[in-house]
Structure formats: C-alpha cells, structure tokens
Amino acid sequence: MKSNNKLYSIKMRASENKDGRDIHISGAEKIVEGRMLPEYINCLVQRGLNHSKGEADFINVKVEKINDDNLLYLDALSVETVEVDSPKQGKMEIMRLLKEIGVCNADGIMELLEETYSMRGAMLLDIHSLKRLEPDTGRGIRATYMDKERNMLTGMQDTKNHFEEALVLATKVANCPGIIGEICISDDPDYVTGYVASKKTGYRRITKMKEPGSENGGRIFLFEGAENDVEAAITFLEKQRVIVRNIKPLNTNKKDRWERIESVLDDMREKNLYRSMNTISSAQSSHVVINGREFVLMASNSYLDISAHPYVKKYCLEVLDEYGFGSGGSRLTTGNTEIHDRLEKRIAKFKECEAALAFNSGYVANVAIISAIMNNGGVIFSDELNHASIIDGCRLSKAKVVVYRHNDMEDLECKIRQNPCENGLVVSDAVFSMDGDILNLPEFLRVCNDYQLFSMVDEAHSTGVLGNTGHGIVEHFGLKEKPDILMGTLSKSVGAEGGYAAGPYRLIEYLKNTARGFIFSTSMSPVTVAAALAGFDIIEGEPERVEKLRENVKYFCRCLRECGIEQESDTPIIPIIMGDEEKAVEKSKYLYEKGFYIPAIRYPTVPKGQARLRVALMSSHTKKELRQAAEYIAKF
Ligand SMILES: *Cc1c(COP(=O)(O)O)cnc(C)c1O
Question: Tens digits of per-residue pLDDT, 51-81?
Fold first, then answer.
C-alpha cells in the first residue's frame, strides 16, 4: 500500500433494518489515493456508524479503481450566500433564481419539489414540458463518483462538511450536458441550508430552506434539450468520474481557523522541513528495532549507553516497588522524597559544587534558571548557537538579550562593552549540541569575571563525555574555578531524564524560591530520579565507558578521513554538513536502508541551508560498525 497514488472511489451506504425493510440512514463517497484507502474507509464507516438518523444494521463499502482517462477535473462553482429568515422566504428566493437562470415555469417546478422528498435520488425534469425523465421515478437519478481534490492534510481532519460535499455535487451537475440548473434542499435533519446552482449563476446558497429536524429534502435537475440527449446526461451524472478543484472555504471574510495551520504544514512539506517520528520498539542502545528491523543507532545522546544498564533497571524496580510511580505534588508541597534529596547531593558531589537542584527536564531547567536569575532586567549575553531551551529562557526573562558570535570571546567582550549593565549573565553550551565543538571556558570565565557578570554553562553534552573521568568541561580544562551556574541534563549521558542546576548554596536556595519551572510543576517520579542516581554511579564506577567513547570518536574520525571526509572532533557529536535540506534527508534515507539510523537535522534546529547528519557515537559502538558507517556516509 505504501506509495500507491492511483485513485480509488470509495462509497459507503449505511442502512437500518425496520420490520424487514432496508431504510437508508446515510451515504457518502470519496475519491482518494490508494495509500490513503485504509484511513478513508475507516472514516466513512465511522460516519455510517454514527449518524443522527439511526443505528446502522448494514454498512456497505465499495472500492473501485479509477482509470485516469475517465477522470474529469472541474473548477468549483463560485459561491454566494443568500441570507433568508424563513423557509417561505427561501422558496421565494428559489423562484427568483430560477427566473434568473431562464426558467419560465418556476411555480410548476416548485410544486414538483415536494414529490422528491420521498426519493433517494433526484428528479430529472424537462423545464418546458415539466415531464419527468428518470427511467425509475421511485429511485430517481443519483449523481455520484465525485469528490473534491484533496491533499494529505485535508484528509487528516476530514470530517463531514455539508457545504463542500454539496458544492462538489452541484459543480458536477452544473457541468452535465443538457442540465441548465439544479434545486436542492438537504434531507439531513440537521442541515437546513439549500441551494440553486447553475453554470450561469454559480452556487447560490440559501440559508434556511426548512425547520431543523425536518427530513423533507430533495433535488431536481433541470433539463433542457432533445429527448435523444437524456441518456447521455444520465450517464454523465451517474458514471462520469469527477474531481472538483479550487473549493474556497465558506465565509471568505472570516478565515477558517485551521487554514493557517494547514498552510504552515504545507509550506514545511514543500521545503523538506516537515518532520514525523520514527517509532522504536526496543531499549535506547547502540542497536534498536524500528518497524521490526534492527538498526545501528548513531544519533542518540545516550553516549555511554547507560539507560538500559542492568543496574539502572534493578535500582529503578526497587524504588518503584517502594514508592510507586507518581510523585503527587511539586517539590515544595508533597512531591519531595528521600530519593530526590539523594539525587541532588549526588549531583553536587559529581560536579564538586556546594548544592544542586533537579528539574523535570533540561529544557525546563534552562527556562526556569535563566528567567529566575534575570527577572529584574539587565542583559543576557548568549552564544548564537546556544540550545533552544537557553533561547527560550532568555525570551521569558525580562532581560535584554545580546547574541555574540559563536564561541568568539573577543566578540563577547566587545558586546559587553557596548552594553554596560548592573545585572548581567553570560550563558553558553559547554559542548554545542549540533556542532560538537567545545566552549573556550578559560576565556569565557575570564571575561565574565572581568565584567562581574554571572557565568552559566550548559553541560548537557559534556557531562559523562568531557574530562578524563567524564566529569565535564571543568575537568576537561583542568580548572580550579567553575562557572557560577553549572546547568546540565540527566537525559543524555546519565541515561535518565531531567535537568539540574549545580552551584553555591545561595544560588540553589534562590532557585528553589523563585524558579517557576521548579515551583509550579509536579516533581519527577522517584523512579526517574533513581535512574539518574544509578547513572551517576555507573559513570564513576565504570570509567572505561568514558574512555571507550573517546576512543570511538578518534577511530570514527580516522575512518571518515580515510574515506575522504576531513573530520576531527573532541566530542561524540560529529556533524556531516550537507547544506541542502533535501540532500540531508536523502542521505539519511540511504543510511537507513543500509541499517544505520542517523536522522537528518534541519531548520529550525540548525540554521536554514545548514542541514546535516548529526552522528552521535556511543561507547558501545564496535569498530566494525564505525568503519561501515563511515564508508556508507562517504559513498552516497
Ligand atoms: C538536550 C539539551 C537540553 C534539554 O535537555 P532535555 O533534558 O532534553 O530537556 C538543554 N540544553 C542542551 C544544550 C541540550 O542539548
């Protein structure tokens, strides 16, 4: 079914059995691409099942392939709405419109309209003789095999739209040879609108043709021509496959609130920026299962492959057994357990800080910390490649934000001079998440100290990665001094979930009392916290993981170079920059076919035109896997 874009007609008819008789409840039809058939069949069956007219005993679904050469594309009739207050006034409008079309015998036609109420199909009427032309007057003529032109999007929220369905039918009928117009009142008890349509006048929507609840509706096709031509008209109405284009939403002055959403998504598709998720059905490790197939995962932030470590599982189960899952409240109310306290002590010890505070995610940590520290105005100096959560924290603060050139300490100093302030913060990723390069921390700290600004470093990708024992960027540079605020996540090397701030007591006490993302959110599950605690124990208890990761980085870069791709990196984040979004997506697809899962990273995660494969290595990748990946990357 995957890429079947041939067109199929689906028809659904639902009926109820009353005293042995089949009573029609609802019917609908669509013309859709083959790959969308299952969704639409489902959608139509749902419609048959849930109709206000009754409960279906019988639903008939018919699917037929459509041959391209038997398909007619028509432009939708133009639409005008005629507001009326009562059905009586509505009928007068119909008479007036019939005259506009050129029908003389409007009174006679209106009298016949009532006769159609009991028919399933339409009456086909000769406008001069008022003779009925349907071969079977009980059944009438059914205009069928038609739909609006659709794209994937309209499909997804394709609920019943009376107006569109009526306009599609009216457009088909108005284009039928010999038909000069149509009158219709819906038989749906909830839909009181009717219309007169013709090629000449377009689609005139009349707002009230009956009282709500009434099933009195029907339609007349107005025929003008020779008797010999009746057959051709009926064939067109009942057999010709038609797709109607350019349907404009009703109330053009009142914009459909979903239209903007759809157009944004459409735009993304066009630019190869549309994203969808892959579903993994195994643990996050160097090998994962996607759609039943095994892949080498080379994109995960779980650099030390800890998340499914037996010790993590064992410890989490113990804590689950003792505490259950949900924490039931925020940390300041009922959601603080002994496990939470232990985690924060563990983080402080790991980062050699006085204290630490845990947040529900790294994202929340950045947003909460920055907006709390900078809630009195002042200036934030932020690296241009900082993570989105830092950017959002800056936006939420009351500070002015000054962006400096990536890892450029001269530019930072220059911008600080240009923006003197009482209260200032300089914030940077330690390892940049999409480029894998390392902050020049010694210079960064010198500048912050010289100008008495708070320094904050995001260790999302440096904890467990940088430094001989994986303690992070301070260990990497062998510094005595630390940034004022060490922020980090528990979700990457640590293999769990959550974020943190580590630093002096007074900082942590301040955040506990002011950081809204900490105060106003239910705390993490003790089980999640346990996973993080276990993660830190493993990083320190199995230092060979950090070492193996570093070796893998060296080896993989060497493989790339041997395959002709110049690459050097000090971190497991190794970007293969492609530039063009489509190219990056295609290369990622190629690697996927070869069994390597390395998604393309595109705008807005990286700047436009800098799309890339972001290779992320794990300590558990084998040399063979690394070499093979490098070869496939170079080959495509
Ligand atoms: C992933 C990441 C975050 C967000 O952390 P989560 O735990 O995923 O919410 C923050 N900063 C940087 C630099 C990151 O890479």
Answer: 877 889 999 999 999 988 889 999 999 999 9
The pair phi, psi for residue 278, each rounded to 5°, is: -95, 150
| Residue 224, phi then psi, degrees to nearest 5 | -135, 115
Backbone φ, ψ for residue 377 (5° rounding): 85, -160
User: By CB neighbour count within 10 A (0-12 exposed, 13-18 middle, 19+ buried), where does 380 fall?
Assistant: buried
Peptide bond into 135 cis (omega under 30): no
Tokens 């505070």 belong to 357
Look up tokens 């003789």; give the residue: 129
The residues near 161 (Cβ < 8 Å, ≥ 6 apart) are none
Residues in the chain: 636
> What is the tens place of the pLDDT at every residue in 100-155?
998 888 889 988 988 888 888 999 999 999 999 999 988 899 999 999 988 655 55
Give Cβ neighbours of residue 611 (< 8 Å, ≥ 6 apart).
Answer: 577, 578, 579, 580, 581, 583, 584, 585, 600, 601, 602, 603
* Å from CA of 460 to ligand 1 middle: 6
- Rounded distance between C-alpha atoms, residue 618 and residue 620, angstroms: 5
Residues 6+ apart with CB under 8 A from 193: 162, 163, 166, 186, 205, 206, 207, 208, 209
Half-sphere CA count of 184, side-chain side, radius 13 A: 29
- Tell me the CB-side half-sphere exposure of residue 272, using CA atoms within 13 A: 17
Rounded distance from Cα 389 to ligand 1 centre (Å): 7
Q: Tell me the C-alpha distance between 380 and 423, whole Å.
A: 9
Q: Which residue among 301, 364, 429, 433 is best mutated to probe the pocket of ligand 1, counting the most ligand atoms within 8 A of its Cβ?
A: 433
What string of DSSP letters covers 221-289?
EEE-S-GGGHHHHHHHHHH-EEEEE-PPPS-TTS--HHHHHHHHHHHHHHTT-------B-S-SSSEEE
Could you please report the per-residue DSSP string of 542-574? Answer: -THHHHHHHHHHHHHHHHHHHTT-----SSSEE
172 with 143: CB under 8 angstroms?
yes
Distance 338 CA to ligand 1 centre (A): 25
Q: Which residue, among 495, 520, 329, has the nearest Cα to 337 in the 3D structure?
A: 329
The helix (run of H) or strand (run of E) holding residue 152 is helix 152-156
C-alpha to C-alpha distance for 608 and 601, rounded to whole angstroms: 10
- The tokens for 622 are 């084998």
- Of ligand 1's atoms, which has the minimum distance to the CA of residue 432? 13
- Calculate how far, in angstroms, residue 347's C-alpha sits from the geometric centre of ligand 1: 17
Pocket of ligand 1 (CB under 6 A): 361-363, 366, 387, 389, 429, 433, 458, 460-461, 489, 491, 499
Summarised one tens digit per residue, pLDDT across range 156-202 is 455 678 889 999 999 999 999 999 999 999 888 888 999 999 999 99
For residue 458, how far is its CA from the centre of ligand 1 (angstroms)?
8
Q: Which amino acid is at 405?
A: R
Angle ∠(232,233,239) on CA atoms, nearest 5: 85
Strand order through the sheet with 355-359: 355-359, 499-503, 485-489, 454-458, 424-429, 379-383, 400-404
**pLDDT tens, 314-327?**
999 999 999 999 99
